[in-house]
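Need a sequence for this fold. Nothing fancy.
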């Protein structure tokens, strides 16, 4: 373990006098009188999550409150999603929800829509509005388009909620401007945050015009948001637009998988003879609230376990980055990685850890090149290692064999996060995706990230920096805001088929989205990451406690340390329930460090349970490995085409 025990003196007055001798032994045998720690047990965090839903431009005849609420989840137990493909892994967290529905009054709506009108800048139709006008089944033609700055609208909604709505709580605004005399066709925009490597401002593209936005953090200097807010708005009177494909009212199957793709059309299509029956408006908005707002933004499930190297959790993390340089005359790592931005953005997600960065260039040759070539042919490059899938296994295996070279040990950090970059030509190795956060094929533990750059991707606007931030966000546990898990139905879903509308979640101020309009993590990302970390630290404190008790650690000094840690976990649970997630994580982390230091003092070894870079064909779960969550791993051709759209 890495740090000696420092007893927190401020907590000592909270504790009873620690007994000695036989009394201490008896207390140790029954768990030392601990109330919140339990040897080997899961964590136990509960929260009643406030969720405000505000209807602006809808009245009770449009959206039936009782039917809307009936379609929302009552409880959620999040899971580690990719490990759960191998074996179910629920977290020690249980959410219930306190829903509050508000129908904004006429005075509020007049103020808000006057604000929109004042922000609206006349513009030509987007390509997707023009495509909508070309549909055979459309009920009207969009004319007189306007652009409205999305962060400004989010800020206004955060700072000017209807009476009784606290936007520091999770708040979902459903907006409908259509039908008013002052209505103007419009889309929302987010400009001014270009790709740090190429200078491309994706917000200028028609494919990045929006109908939804939110999740901005107060420390986002460009947002102007003056205080903590948790707001996401969704406007069916905007658009039509690209990511949800609600411009297409003629075709059922949009992604070519042979399955009809459910999407929410523009609000004027909810009419007799339109794309959707008006009676479907209430359940449609409830679907967005449940499967996007609640499941993907407000209370998401992690993609991977956040407890890296469990139960030996790191204090410091090295972003160990390796680039296979396969472009003659181009130093891709020098041209397309901004180390300072990379480290600073990742550090914002996990402020309890210390981060550093190192990098090495390697030739694209040998088994790495051979396996990459066979990746495109779906042929295994090491057929003797049965069970590893031919495609992604061809990226994992050669790098796992080179782990000692890749993890070069230049950093003194406790944990090295291995990033593998491929700088390739479009002709020889056309990038199959921008990036992928891979697992170990045995337990669903995160292993490498793979990140591609090529002349074609650079021309399309992408370097390596933002892909690295995104994929390391996955490695550290985050899912996308457009795919996730529904606890009550047990369904893990992405934006396809009956959940195609979940693409709307990508229209948020999150590095984990696909809109490429910002490079930091949303308030929702940070909230959820802190929740996951609190749970992980408490769970691993219990694991280390079990090791201590198995080794007979029952002296007075150890018992005092454990009671200090126990009090910290109790405080963490209370902060969690009070929605102060950063404090919950910080207190759980201090509890874990106290227990870990006690184990170190006693000479009790605490070692990581899984080595994700160890090759073990006999342990590969081929079925689970083949069933990787495709959207969560950024490896769907259709999704890449969306990101490359003009």
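Here you go.
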């Amino acid at each position: 373990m890495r740090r000696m025990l420092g007893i927190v003196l401020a907590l000592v007055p909270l504790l009873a006098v620690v007994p000695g001798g036989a009394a201490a032994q008896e207390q140790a045998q029954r768990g030392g009188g601990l109330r919140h720690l339990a040897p080997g047990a899961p964590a136990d965090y509960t929260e009643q999550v406030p969720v405000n839903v505000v209807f602006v431009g809808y009245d009770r005849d449009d959206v039936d409150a009782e039917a809307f609420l009936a379609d929302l989840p009552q409880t959620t137990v999040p899971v580690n999603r990719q490990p759960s493909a191998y074996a179910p892994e629920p977290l020690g967290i249980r959410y219930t929800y306190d829903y509050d529905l508000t129908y904004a009054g006429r005075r509020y709506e007049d103020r808000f829509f006057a604000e929109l009108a004042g922000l609206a800048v006349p513009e030509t139709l987007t390509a997707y509005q023009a495509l909508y006008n070309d549909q055979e089944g459309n009920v009207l033609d969009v004319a007189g388009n306007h652009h409205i700055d999305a962060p400004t609208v989010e800020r206004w909604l955060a700072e000017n909620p209807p009476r009784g709505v606290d936007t520091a709580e999770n708040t979902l605004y459903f907006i409908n401007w259509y039908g008013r005399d002052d209505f103007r066709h419009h889309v929302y925009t987010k400009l001014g945050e270009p790709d740090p490597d190429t200078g491309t401002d994706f917000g200028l593209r028609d494919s990045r015009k929006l109908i939804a936005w939110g999740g901005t953090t107060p420390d986002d200097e460009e947002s102007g948001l003056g205080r903590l807010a948790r707001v996401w708005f969704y406007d069916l009177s905007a658009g039509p637009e690209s990511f949800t494909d609600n411009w297409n009212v003629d075709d059922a199957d949009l992604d070519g998988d042979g399955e009809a793709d459910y999407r929410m059309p523009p609000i004027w299509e909810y009419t007799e003879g339109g794309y959707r029956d008006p009676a479907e408006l209430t359940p449609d908005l409830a679907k967005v609230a449940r499967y996007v707002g609640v499941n993907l933004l407000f209370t998401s499930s992690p993609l991977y376990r956040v407890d890296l190297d469990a139960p030996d959790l790191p204090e410091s993390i090295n972003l160990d980055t390796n680039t296979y340089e396969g472009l003659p005359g181009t130093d891709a790592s020098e041209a397309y990685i901004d180390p300072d931005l990379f480290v600073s953005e990742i550090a914002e997600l996990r402020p309890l850890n210390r981060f550093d960065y190192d990098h090495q260039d390697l030739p694209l040759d040998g088994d790495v090149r051979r396996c990459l070539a066979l990746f495109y042919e779906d042929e295994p490059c090491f057929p003797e290692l049965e069970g590893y899938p031919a495609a992604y296994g061809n990226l994992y295996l050669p790098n796992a064999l080179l782990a000692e070279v890749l993890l070069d040990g230049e950093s003194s950090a406790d944990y090295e996060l291995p990033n593998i970059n491929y700088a390739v030509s479009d002709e020889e190795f056309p990038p199959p995706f921008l990036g992928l956060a891979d697992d170990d094929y045995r337990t669903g533990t995160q292993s490498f990230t793979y990140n591609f750059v090529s002349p074609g991707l650079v021309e399309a606007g992408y370097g390596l920096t933002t892909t690295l931030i995104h994929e390391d966000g996955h490695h550290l546990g985050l899912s996308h805001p457009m795919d996730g898990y529904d606890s009550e139905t047990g369904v893990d879903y992405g934006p396809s088929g009956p959940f195609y509308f979940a693409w709307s979640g990508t229209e948020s101020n999150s590095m984990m989205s696909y809109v490429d309009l910002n490079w930091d993590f949303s308030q929702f990302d940070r909230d959820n990451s802190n929740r996951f970390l609190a749970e992980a630290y408490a769970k691993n404190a219990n694991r280390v406690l079990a090791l201590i008790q198995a080794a007979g650690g029952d002296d007075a000094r150890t018992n005092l340390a454990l009671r200090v840690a126990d009090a910290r976990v109790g405080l963490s649970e209370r902060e969690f329930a009070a929605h102060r997630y950063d404090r919950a994580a910080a207190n759980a982390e201090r509890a874990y460090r106290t227990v870990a230091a006690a184990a170190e003092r006693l000479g009790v070894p605490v070692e990581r349970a899984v080595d994700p870079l160890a090759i073990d064909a006999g342990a590969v779960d081929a079925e689970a490995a083949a069933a990787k969550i495709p959207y969560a791993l950024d490896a769907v051709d259709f999704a890449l085409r969306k990101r490359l759209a003009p």
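For context: The CA atoms of residues 449 and 472 lie 7 Å apart.
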